[in-house]
Amino acid sequence: MPSASNSRNTDEPVTREQIIWQVVCSIPSGRVASYGQIAALSGLPGLARFVGRTMSQLPENSDVPWYRVLRSDGRLAFPPESERFGTQQRLLLEEGVDIRRGRVPLGQFGWKP
Questions:
Q1: Neighbouring residues of 85: CB distance < 8 A, sequence distance ≥ 6
Q2: Nearest alpha carbon to residue 111 among 37, 30, 32, 26
Q3: From CA 49, how far away is CA 102, in angstroms rounded?
Q4: Residue of 18, 112, 31, 107 lying closest to 69 (CA atoms)
């Protein structure tokens, strides 16, 4: 199960998915990043959709902060009427992230590693 603390044997190969999850775990509380930014920081430039698929594979009880990953224009990742949209919005608001009309102002809350 993916988690923020990855206790694995260093001889095991690291998958692209594990790298993505590690990068997402690096996003500080109160900051957000786009799928494309996560792809680039993971050494996978241009594979934003792969990042999206990878994030969708996280188990419900994962401690990877999936909700900090947004679309490139700052929109939340799910349709506004969905339960996941509400969960993502609530978790971001709890961290002090401002959301206006389903979008986060990236200039203010975007992660700059």
A1: 76, 77, 78, 79, 102
A2: 32
A3: 20
A4: 31
Instruction: Give one DSSP letter per residue of 3-64, joined into a string.
Output: -SS----TTSPPPHHHHHHHHHHHSPTT-BEEHHHHHHHTT-TT-HHHHHHHHHTS-TT--S
Q: What is the mean pLDDT of residues 7-28?
A: 83
Which amino acid, 109?
F
Q: Using CA atoms, how far apart are residues 88 and 68, in angstroms rounded to an integer? A: 8
Summarised one tens digit per residue, pLDDT across range 11-20 is 666 899 999 9
CB 65 within 8 A of CB 21: no
What's the whole-number mean pLDDT along residues 58-63?
Answer: 90
